[in-house]
C-alpha cells in the first residue's frame, strides 16, 4: 500500500522506537542494500508507528520527505511502498516484510513473507494477542524436535524464533503462497499418478513425524505447504501432541477440523498414530474423488458406508487404500508401514516430479516417462523380494543350527 500524496504533515512526533535493543540498533539496515531506506531515514523520523499496526508490533516507512520534527514545514511527499518490519529484541536482527498481502492467517496468527539481513526470504508466523503462550511454547518444542538434526524434506523447516515486541514469531522456509488446499480447489479430482506422487510424500513426512514421537492431530490440506518443485511439506504443529504422554493424561476432544478429524478424537478415545492416518485418508479421498466426505464433525463420528466407492470413479486399488485408511476402528486401521507397500503405490505410474503448472491444470505424462518409471518400480520390487528371501533363509539357518543365534549375556 503506497503512501498517499498531498497528506498533511504529522502534528505530533511519533513514539520512540524503543523496542529496538541498544546493542543492535538499526545497523542491520546498512547490510540490506535491497531496501530503499537508510539508517539516517530511521533516525530523523521517516519511520513511524501507525496506530493501526502498532498493535501488531511493526513500524512503517512513510517516505523520505516526512516532517523531520524540527519545525520545518513540508508540503510535498514522495510516494513509495510502505515497509513493515519485525525486530528480534534479544539479538537485534531485523526482518523486513516483502509484500503487504499476508501469506496466510489462522488461529495462531498471520504468516508474513520477510527478508533477513542476509537477503534470504523466509516465512514468519506471528501470533495475535489472543494466542496462548503455552500453545506457542508447545509448537516450538515439537518443531525443535523435528528439526534437531537434518529434518525431513516433507516437513516444514524451522529456523528459530523472532522475539518481536508483538510476540514470539516462528521462522520457516518460504514455500508457495498457495497451499495444498488451493491446489485441490483449483483442480478438483487429481490424476491417480498425482495421487501416488503426493501420497508417498505425505506418508514419508508423517512417518518421520511419528518416529520423532509427535502426533500432528490436525492434518488437512490447509496444513500442507507446496514448496518449489511441487514438494509437499507438512506444517502447523499448534495442535500436536507427544505420543509418549498419551497414557499420562485424560482423553479429551480437541478443536480439530470437521471432515478431517479422526473418530477417536470425537469419541474422547485414546490418541494414537492411527488418528493421523485417518486424516491423511481424508486428504486422499479429496485428491481422488475431488470432493469432501465428512465422516466426522466436531460432535459426530460415523463409519464408512458400504457403498461409498460408487460415488466416484477410481481404480480398485485406489478405493481399497481409501477403505483401509478410513477404517472407523483405530485398532484395525492400516498402519503407515503397511501403507508403504500397498498395491496402489507400486502398481501404476508414479512421476518423480511435477511441473508448477500442476497447480492449475492436469500434467501430461509421456509413454517414455511411464516405461522408465515401470523399470525403476520393477527393480525396487525385486530388491524388496531379495531382502525378504535372505531374511527367510537366515531364519531357516538359525532353526537348523547352521547359525548360532545371539544370546544376551547374563547380568
List keywords for this structure.
single chain, 411 residues, Phosphorylase Kinase, domain 1, Transferase(Phosphotransferase), domain 1, 2 domains, seven-stranded antiparallel β-sheet, two-stranded antiparallel sheet, 10 helices, 13 strands, 13% strand, globular, disordered N terminus
Write the layout of secondary structure elements.
Blueprint (H helix, E strand, L loop, with lengths): L38 H5 L3 E2 L2 H4 L5 E2 L23 E3 L6 E4 L6 E2 L3 E7 L5 E7 L5 H14 L11 E7 L2 E7 L6 H8 L4 H20 L2 E2 L8 E4 L3 E4 L6 E2 L20 H4 L7 H16 L26 H10 L10 H5 L26 H34 L11
Antiparallel strand pairs: 1-2, 3-4, 4-6, 5-6, 6-7, 7-9, 8-9, 10-13, 11-12
Give a written overview of the molecule:
- By secondary structure, the protein is of the alpha+beta class.
- The chain has ten helices and 13 strands.
- The chain has two domains: 27-173, Phosphorylase Kinase, domain 1 (2-Layer Sandwich); 180-371, Transferase(Phosphotransferase) domain 1 (Transferase(Phosphotransferase), domain 1), CATH 1.10.510.10.
- Helices cover 29% and strands 13% of the residues.
- The strands form four sheets. Strands 3, 4, 5, 6, 7, 8 and 9 form a seven-stranded antiparallel β-sheet that branches.
- β3 (85-87) and β4 (94-97) form a beta hairpin.
- It is globular and about 60 Å long.
- Mean pLDDT is 74; it is low at 1-69, 73-82 and 398-411.
Amino acid at each position: 500500500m503506497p503512501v498517499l500524496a498531498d497528506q498533511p504533515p504529522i502534528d505530533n512526533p511519533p513514539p520512540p522506537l524503543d523496542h529496538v535493543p541498544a546493542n543492535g540498533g538499526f545497523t542491520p539496515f546498512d547490510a540490506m542494500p535491497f531496501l530503499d531506506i537508510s539508517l539516517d531515514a530511521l533516525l530523523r523520523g521517516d519511520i513511524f508507528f501507525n496506530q493501526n499496526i502498532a498493535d501488531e508490533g511493526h513500524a512503517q516507512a512513510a517516505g523520505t520527505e516526512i516532517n523531520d520534527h524540527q519545525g520545518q514545514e513540508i508540503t510535498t511527499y514522495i510516494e513509495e511502498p510502505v515497509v513493515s518490519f519485525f525486530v528480534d529484541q534479544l539479538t537485534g536482527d531485523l526482518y523486513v516484510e516483502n509484500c503487504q498481502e499476508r501469506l496466510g492467517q489462522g488461529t495462531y496468527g498471520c504468516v508474513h513473507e520477510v527478508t533477513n539481513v542476509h537477503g534470504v526470504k523466509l516465512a514468519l508466523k506471528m501470533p495475535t494477542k489472543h494466542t496462548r503462550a503455552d500453545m506457542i511454547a508447545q509448537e516450538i518444542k515439537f518443531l525443535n524436535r523435528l528439526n534437531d538434526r537434518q529434518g525431513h524434506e516433507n516437513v516444514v523447516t524451522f529456523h528459530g524464533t523472532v522475539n518481536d515486541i508483538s510476540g514470539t514469531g516462528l521462522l520457516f522456509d518460504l514455500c508457495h503462497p498457495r497451499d495444498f488446499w488451493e491446489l485441490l480447489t483449483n483442480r478438483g479430482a487429481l490424476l491417480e499418478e498425482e495421487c501416488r506422487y503426493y501420497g508417498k510424500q505425505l506418508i514419508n513426512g508423517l512417518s518421520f513425524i511419528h518416529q520423532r514421537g509427535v502426533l500432528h492431530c490436525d492434518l488437512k490440506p490447509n496444513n500442507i505447504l507446496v514448496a518449489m518443485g511441487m514438494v509437499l511439506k507438512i506444517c502447523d504443529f499448534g495442535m500436536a501432541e507427544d505420543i509418549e504422554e498419551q497414557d499420562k493424561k485424560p482423553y479429551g476432544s480437541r478443536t480439530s477440523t470437521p471432515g478431517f478429524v479422526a473418530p477417536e478424537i470425537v469419541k474422547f478415545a485414546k490418541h494414537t498414530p492411527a488418528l493421523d492416518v485417518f486424516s491423511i485418508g481424508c486428504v486422499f479421498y479429496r485428491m481422488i474423488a475431488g470432493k469432501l466426505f465428512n465422516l466426522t464433525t466436531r460432535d459426530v463420528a460415523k463409519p464408512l458406508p458400504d457403498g461409498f466407492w460408487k460415488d466416484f470413479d477410481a481404480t480398485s486399488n485406489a478405493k481399497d487404500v481409501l477403505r483401509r485408511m478410513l477404517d472407523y476402528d483405530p485398532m484395525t486401521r492400516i498402519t503407515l508401514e503397511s501403507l508403504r507397500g500397498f498395491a496402489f503405490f507400486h502398481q501404476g505410474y508414479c512421476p518423480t516430479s511435477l511441473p508448477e503448472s500442476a497447480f492449475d491444470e492436469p500434467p501430461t505424462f509421456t509413454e517414455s516417462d511411464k516405461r522408465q518409471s515401470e523399470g525403476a518400480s520393477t527393480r525396487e520390487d525385486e530388491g524388496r523380494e531379495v531382502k525378504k528371501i535372505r531374511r527367510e533363509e537366515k531364519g531357516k539357518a538359525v532353526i537348523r543350527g547352521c547359525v548360532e543365534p545371539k544370546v544376551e549375556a547374563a547380568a
